[in-house]
Amino acid sequence: MSGAMEIDLAGATIELEGASNPVAEAALAALRANGGRIIEGTRPAGVPPPDIVLVSCPLRPGTTAENPGTLYAAARKAAVAMTERGGGRIVFLLSVAAGMPMRRHPRFSMENASILAGMRTMAMEFGPKILVNAVGVGLVEDEAMVSGDKAMLSHVPVDRAGNIEEAVAAVLFFCDPLNTYTTGQMLGVDGGWMAGYGRNF
């Protein structure tokens, strides 16, 4: 990831909740490259909670997903443990459809919107010790489509699909120890799609 954003995590521990996907995998790799330590597998009892929890939600319509309530419960459990420890960060990776529903994908939009509402509720409940934010991922392609719906491209002002590194940069922004005053926010990495262009579908 030449030219990628750099932050200093200084050994902060990171845990993934939810199913992995290419954006989540790349985010974990970038967090590791910036000094983070990834907790693999189930954390044993008695081990302190991670400093950062990345909550991976479905990014493409039709993707088999965990129940949104299950993801929220896992994130909330981590937030309780982090609060007792004294601080932490939670970053949700979700579809930008959380902020603007897609008529073609009502259930997918509704599930992501419920997760976004839960994220904002957690930010209020667990502040100031825990910062809780979300990266809303639009149409992102690698060798194949990673997130979103191909039809989104006709309503993206920058006139192209995004790439994984652009989504990862937003994750790093929320995890940066220098970023201490942003919580309850969804940063849309969508080429401007959510600015109003999604209304036709």
Write the layout of secondary structure elements.
Elements: E1 13-18, H1 22-33, E2 37-38, E3 52-56, H2 68-85, E4 88-95, H3 106-126, E5 130-137, E6 140-141, E7 145-147, H4 164-175, E8 186-189
Parallel strand pairs: 1-2, 1-3, 3-4, 4-5, 5-8
Antiparallel strand pairs: 6-7
3D structure, described in words:
By secondary structure, the protein is an alpha/beta fold. It contains four helices and eight strands; from the N terminus they run βαββαβαβββαβ. The strands form two sheets. Strands 2-1-3-4-5-8 form a six-stranded parallel sheet, with helices on both faces. The longest helix has 21 residues, at 106-126. The model has no long low-confidence stretch (mean pLDDT 91).
Name some characteristics of this structure.
two-stranded antiparallel ribbon; 4 helices; 31% helix; single chain
Question: Average pLDDT across residues?
Answer: 91
Largest β-sheet summary: 6 strands, parallel
Q: What's the N-to-C terminus distance?
A: 34 Å
How many beta strands in the DSSP annotation? 8
- Work out the helicity level: 25-40%
Basic shape: globular
The total count of helices amounts to 4
Major sheet strand order: 2-1-3-4-5-8
**Please, what is the oligomeric state?**
single chain
SS content category: alpha/beta
- Cα-based radius of gyration, to the nearest Å: 16 Å
Give the topology string: H per helix, E per strand. EHEEHEHEEEHE
Q: Proportion of β residues?
A: 15-25%
Contiguous runs where pLDDT drops below 50 for at least 5 residues:
none
